[in-house]
Amino acid sequence: MKSYRSWTTGETIVMEGEPLPFVGSVVSGCATLTRSMEDGRTQMVGLLMPSDFVGRPGRTTAAYEVVAATDLVLCQFRRDAFEEMMAETPNVSQRLLEMSLDELDAARDWMLVLGRKTAREKVATLLANVLRRAPTDQRPLRAELPLTRDAMATYLGLTIETVSRQISALRKAEIIRLEGNRTVLCDDYGALLTEAGDDDDGDGLY
Amino acid sequence: MKSYRSWTTGETIVMEGEPLPFVGSVVSGCATLTRSMEDGRTQMVGLLMPSDFVGRPGRTTAAYEVVAATDLVLCQFRRDAFEEMMAETPNVSQRLLEMSLDELDAARDWMLVLGRKTAREKVATLLANVLRRAPTDQRPLRAELPLTRDAMATYLGLTIETVSRQISALRKAEIIRLEGNRTVLCDDYGALLTEAGDDDDGDGLY
DNA sequence: CTCCTGCCTTGATGTAAATCAAAGTTGATG
DNA sequence: CATCAACTTTGATTTACATCAAGGCAGGAG
Known about the structure:
2 copies of one chain form a homodimer.
Chain A: E1 2-7, E2 12-14, E3 22-28, E4 31-36, E5 42-48, E6 53-54, E7 65-68, E8 72-78, H1 79-88, H2 90-116, H3 119-132, E9 141-144, H4 149-156, H5 160-172, E10 177-179, E11 183-186, H6 189-195
Antiparallel strand pairs in A: 1-8, 2-7, 3-6, 3-8, 4-5, 4-7, 9-11, 10-11
Chain A binds a DNA duplex through helix 5.
């Protein structure tokens, strides 16, 4: 009933609208949830990190496409077995409710980003989110981007060119530095949050 | 422990970040959930209709501003009493999970609207969603808009002028008609969905 | 080593929506 | 019924981002 399975970067895990006979959670790596229009326009609607849940109890088809953004390991449960477990153990559904509400808050926060922020603020917001998970004891803050420029554009509702330009602009403004093009460094997290349009009441990060 | 309370159009029900000592559900009318930046930019992140839930069990402050979009009646529960009830009756938390997941899907669908649709598609999407609740047995479809142009703009991540222009454009293209400026009529729902960029099968949400 | 191929960056140009600016409606109130 | 405020529409102009178009760079295969 419980099993582990791996995917490599770029592999599709589930296609939009397809039957989804399992639920699971991310063990390691990072996956993207996307929703598309017929003409190909695509919007990322979620970024799954370790411990995040995949699938929806009580629904048999996938509402979103799920793709491995990095190499990925998932812990899977057969849907029916999982639903039985939920019915028996109130804790499980309690916990799942809490996780869903957190994701709902995250989705709604992202709606503000998509609807109202400028390109520069969007990019700064994403970089700030990535850096928020960086080890807090080192300065400068350093993090590996789990996404390509293309995936970032899909996440932010922008084009790849705009993402690239804004990253360059933030670099020239000395808000961030890059090492290669998948590692970001930041000396002044408060300044980055300001660029993101957030008040920098950041949780003791600096 | 349970009580009813009314608000009139435009009244604020809860302010962002304020303590929220109750949870509840909409009995009649319509409320908006919004999230704002310090400089005043505002994005609607949800539209609450009858039977929708307000508040979050396990959290004592409001994450969003809630405003009555029309005259509104709420059925309220004291938070602590409600949480007790949840712990005792698995059905309640089961049902709440289902509702949360529906709202999560709705929020994510709306992310695609905000991130990727054009102004015309956004407006058409909103009108299509409003008309989807209209009585299906009459032609033309007719519905009252629960939102002002300003609220629509906040919902769609646009300005009020753009919303107004797109409504005019859809009217001139004979996709919709108006009666006053709060009532929409539509003879060809399929055509409206095409303008919305959807395959003609309402996906969705508000 | 050289040639791909897949990313990423940068520049020039075009355009959808924002902004700025009136003016027209509607509906409430004295 | 006149007035006033709130809401809505329309027009002119600006601008942020998309689109179009090269070119650069790193990693893998021959």
